[in-house]
Design brief:
Layout: H1 2-16, E1 37-39, E2 49-51, E3 54-58, E4 72-77, E5 81-88, E6 92-102, E7 114-118, E8 121-126, H2 128-132, E9 138-147, E10 150-158, E11 168-180, H3 184-207
Antiparallel strand pairs: 1-3, 2-5, 3-4, 4-11, 5-10, 6-9, 6-11, 7-8, 7-10
Helix pairs in contact: 1-3
Amino acid sequence: MKLIKLAVLLSTLVAASFAQASFSNASFENNNVSGGYLYAPQVVATGWSFANGAGVSANSTAWGGITQSGNYFAFLQNTASISQTFNNTNAANLSFSFDLAQRSAWNNGGAQTIDVLFDNQKYASFTPKNSLGWDTWGSFSFTVNNVNAGSHTLAFIGVNPLHAGDTAAFLDNVAVNVAPVPEPETYALMGMGLVALIAARRRKMKAA
């Protein structure tokens, strides 16, 4: 019985060391667009904030985009921004992934660049046209190490590097992969529990 209790304790400690984080409405499917498209401030998509020419579009509207999955995607026109605040339960390394596409040139469009910020600090910058061409989706990613537990914000910012009258990139399928970073106290408790488990098992074997 004691061995079972110790094993349960160890499993509880291991589970407690795992961090969890996820995005609400990662593919922008939950929205008020109703088959067309909307800009901020009219657009509403659960979990997300939009500003300065950002919004959500359905497939095959005047925006021209078609998602790889689902029926909706977000767009960042010129210096638009899209962000979401989420909760990370424990210390972890967070790997973010998302899909981007460059809208075909429009007016004097040129290529859009998207800066990605984590807690207001720039971690990555992507120009999807450079690797994908026009109207082609591709996956992009970056990692932030040693993220503390608590509330954090991921933001996508349009740069419009050529100061174009109209340039835009599409965004979809935002996800985060969590690699837990156990606290030192957790390692210590797990070590003590493991030693106790081994000692108890040895005593049981000797008694037999």
